[in-house]
Every structure is written in structure tokens, then in C-alpha cells.
Amino acid sequence: MNANLAHLLERALAAPDRALYRHWTGERWDDVTAAEIAARAARWQAAFRREGYAAGDRIAVALRNGIQWVAIDQAALGLGLVVVPLYVDDNADNIAWCVEHAQARLVVVDGSRMANALRGLAGRYALPPIVVLRADAGEPAASAERWLPEADRAFEVRDVAPGTLATICFTSGTAGRPKGVMLSHGNIGANVAMCAATAMARPDDRFLSILPLSHMFERTGGYYLPLSIGAQVAFARGVAHLPDDLRTQAPTVVFAVPRIFEKFAARIEHALAGAPRRKRLFDACVALGWRVEQGRARLHDRLVLRALRRLVAKPILARLGGRLRLAVVGGAALDPALARTFIGLGLPMLQGYGMTEASPVVSVNRLSDNVPDTVGRPLDGVEVKLAEGGELLVRGASVMLGYWRNDEATRASIDAAGWLHTGDIGEIRDGRIAIRGRAKDILVLSNGEKLPPQDVEFAVLHDPVFEQAMLIGEARPYVVLLAVSQETDERALLKRANAQLKAFPRWMRVRRVIASREPWSVENGLLTPTLKLKRPMLVDRYRDRIDAAYASRDSG
Question: Coil, strand, or helix at residue 304?
Fold first, then answer.
């Protein structure tokens, strides 16, 4: 059986003129057909053959989402090469380390700035030749256009067994050097087939590619899945252009992290803050919409909701393009209240769960079975169970081969029975999975109380004065809140934080707030590329203020 993932493009060539992609040229949006993307891939394959790359050789790619990313990926996979995707905005040192650790034969980067930074690290790392996609004038490294020959044959797909290594994906991690997750053609192909079997994505959909393709959530859900069914993908130009791209490209499906919708919801709240009547209508629309979606409404309620959605929800959803029928959210925990807001407005928001080590989707809520405080039921073909202590274990065809050049980590993650130990604490309720948090993130206070911080952080963030929040309390006598807020009065912030925590046990209440106006971001190293908190980094960044907060309470 030939399991090569490049068969996805090969099969798409049955309709060569079908527009599979849309991208911004700098002047306009252009469509790219199946035949055109295959022609681009064939040029890269000609270059790989010219350089003498053999099956199993690694090709590192640090590019922004786009048609060249797809062309290189399909070209390499078709020849049995191994793709090593790297986050384009990562620091050069981490990219160089990953390239060296993967023993890559080539690295393709987006621009001259990264090429120059990597060349400056050549004395510390053994780096392969660098090809630059968009080279500055006088660029000493090879520009892609000069480096690529004309295609010497049609797009080629070689036979590979299902267990053949397809990619090494470096986990972003929250501390330390990343681990290289080895995924086979069979691993990823199985996950794509499982996702397609939910029938939630359709051939007439238009996906908007937002998240980096260097992460399996976007790569499987926003690239391989639509390619497998012939759906179109439009490549967003970046976060700064996202509102305009949503409006002009009018996608029907997006895969996103919660932070994108949190920001959108915050803008809505801000716009409604000075309009009490509109705010009441908005709240009524959300509440009634949620009740209707749960099947707990009468015919009269449905009629009222139709009018409310036309008046309230339609202008809001128009900012998302007006055609969005499905938003799948993963990569980080989703506040159920946020999901209920968008579901109430008429946008199905489905929380899923996965990890790179599982190719990555493990479970997802379905359109007909959406319980936002869970991550849904496992995909058909994925087994799950809870270990002692509540850790979620996963088994199935999409579970990784192991970690690249790290047998010890592989043995620690996959047991003798083939169960992947996720490191997430979970519950299974009526067949649905609920994630309580990362085992390593659970706070154990000095009095022995154990606190999953996620629920408390979500509750605090219901007050829009808090932009970001993280609990501190490991081995401490009580909980302190670290927060991003433009409000500087920490006493006022303390009062507002605890106003959101009235339903929690008293020992979970916050005793001090440490506020900062500087947002936590990928660029300043405090968020992962999928926008999860780098908790150890945050603790290190604010250690002096944290120690002072506890010292002042203890002495007081």
C-alpha cells in the first residue's frame, strides 16, 4: 500500500483547473489551481534530484503560510524526503538548533534577515545550505528563483510504506529545547481520514489559513484536510490584516486558537460599553441563541431569535466575512463562556483537543453534539482512557513514531501497550473528554491544596479590564494573580478579580495582583506560537515582583 501524503495533490490533479488556493500577490488576490501548484512542486523536485537528496533526507522550512510552503512540502513528501517545518518568527538560535538537531540537508527561509541571522550562527551550529524565498538585492545566499531549475518531469509521487517518516515537528514547548516529534505518512494520513469522516468539512468550503503551518493543528486541519476533499484555502496575510482578510475572503471554515476570538469578543464588549440598549439586545440574543441551540426553546423563542440575530448578530458576523459556518478552536483551552457567546450569535464554535504527538487531532465537538466545556468525543479510530491520577492516555494509528534522536523521551511518552501519555489531566463524561489542565501546571500550594489554574484564569478574564492572566502559587501559602491590564491600581484590580471568583472556594481567592501593561506575546518569548502561556518564562520574568508580593503579605 502506497501511503504517500503527496497522493493528496496527485488525486486533486483529477480536476487540474480547480482553484485550490488563494494568495495575496502584493497587489491582488490570485487563485492557484491544482495543476499550477503541482508545477511549482515539480520545480522543487527537480532541484532536490539535482542536489542528490535521497529518501529520508531532511528539508527544513521556515516560511510564512503560502503556496510555496505547500509546493515544497508536496515536492519533498512526493520524493520520500522528510519535511522539518519551523516557526517563521522564531529566534534564529532556536531555528539553527532545530536544523542542526534534525541534520537537515537544506533550509529554506522566508527572507534575507533570517538568512543573515543564521549565517551569523554558523560558528556555533553545523548548518546546511540556505535558500531564501524572498531575497534582498545582493543576497549572498541562493534566492529560490535562481536556485530552482525548470521542471524536468511531471510532479512525482513515489511509493512509501505507512510507517515511513514524513515529518519532524518540533514542539514549541513552554521551557527548554523543543523535542522533534516524528510523524509518519500513515500517522498523518490516518488523522486526515478521521477528520474527514466527521463530514463537517465540505468540498465547497473556503478555509482561511491563519495559524502557522509549522504546527500540526493548521497543517492537518487547514491544509491536508481541505486538500483531501478538494476544498479551497485562502492564506491570510498575517494578524495585522486578519480583519480585512476575513471580510474580503469570506471564509466558511477557520481553524483558530481561542485568543483570536477572545480579541474579537473584547472589541465587541468595548463597542457596547457605552450603549446600554445595544448591550441588552446583544445579551438577549446570546442567551436566547444558546437556549435554542440546546433545544430548550419554544417556537416563539425561535421567531424572536430570528429577529434578534438579524438585528444584532448579522452585523457582527459580517466582520468575519458573513459566511462563516464553522470555527474549530484548539491549541489552547477555550473558555466555555466565549463559545456560548458565539454559538448564541449563530456561529458554531467547536472546541477540539489534540497534540503534535497525535498528528494532532484526538477529539472534537460535533455540530450536532456540541458541549463547549468539553473537547468533544474522540475521533473514530482513536482510543482514550484515564490513567491513575487522571492523566489522559491516547492510542491509535495517528500516534507518533517517537521523538527524533531521543529514545528516553519516547519511552517516557509511549508505554509498552502503545498508549501515548499526554501530560493533560482530564475527565471523561458521557463519552466526551474534558481537560482540566496540564499536569505540570497544576499548582500545589504549601498547605497541600491542588489547584488547576485554568478555570480561575478564565473566570478572572470575564472582566475585560484583564487582558491576560496567570495564577501563581506553587509551594506558596496562597494564590497571587499575574495580569496584563492597562489599569495600574493593583488594589482595584484585586477587588475586581475576586468579584469574578465568588463561586470558587475561599482558598482559591487571589490575595495580591501583580499588574503589567506589556502584553505577553510570541515576540517577547512569553507565549508559544499557538499562543499558550509559557508559564516558567513568565515566572522568571516577574520573579522579583512575585517574591516581593509574597514577602509583603507575609510581613504584613
Answer: helix
Helices (runs of H) and strands (runs of E) counted in the chain: 20, 26
Sign of CA pseudo-dihedral 210, 216, 221, 224: positive
Phi-psi region of 280 (alpha: psi -120 to 50; beta: other; left: phi over 0): alpha
Query: What would the pLDDT profile of 417-432 be if each residue is shown by its tens digit?
Result: 999 999 999 999 999 9
Closest by CA to 197, choosing from 331, 364, 356, is 364
Whether residue 360 has a cis bond before it, omega within 30° of 0:
yes
Q: Which amino acid is at 378?
A: P
Q: Helix, strand, coil: what percent of the chain each, to 5?
A: 40, 25, 40
Question: What single-letter amino acid sits at 343?
Answer: I
AA letter at 435: I
Which pLDDT band, with edges at 50, 70 and 90, does 522 fall under? confident
CA pair distance 446, 480, nearest whole angstrom: 13
pLDDT for the residue numbered 556 = 41
The DSSP secondary structure of 493-513, one letter per residue, reads HHHHHHHTTTTS-GGGSEEEE
CB distance 195 to 201 below 8 Å = yes
Cα–Cα distance measured from residue 410 to residue 402, given in angstroms and rounded to the nearest whole number: 5
Residues 6+ apart with CB under 8 A from 387: 393, 421
- The β-bridge relationship of strands 510-516 and 479-484 is parallel
Cell (9 digits) for 347: 456561529
Could you tell me the three cell numbers for 478? Answer: 496562597
Residues 448-498 have pLDDT tens digits of 888 889 889 999 999 999 999 999 999 999 999 999 999 989 999 999 999
The alpha carbon of residue 222 and the mean position of all alpha carbons in its chain are separated, in whole angstroms, by: 10
- Cell numbers 534564529 label which residue? 92
Residue 416 has, within 13 A of its CA and on its CB side, a CA count of: 0
What's the Cα-to-Cα distance from 309 to each of 19, 313, 322, 422, rounded to whole Å? 33, 4, 12, 40
Which helix (DSSP H) or strand (DSSP E) does residue 221 occupy? none
Would you call 411 helix, strand, or coil by DSSP?
helix
The helix or strand, by DSSP H or E, that contains position 57, with its residue range, turns out to be none
Question: Which strand ranges, in their side-by-side order, compose the sheet holding 420-429?
Answer: 382-386, 391-396, 420-429, 432-438
Cα gap 158→148, rounded to integer Å:
21
Task: Report DSSP state, residue 520.
Answer: P
Q: Give CA–CA dist 151/400, Å, rounded.
A: 34
Q: How far apart are CA 31 and CA 465, in angstroms?
A: 42
The beta-strand segments (E) located in 335-419 are 349-354, 361-364, 377-378, 382-386, 391-396, 402-403
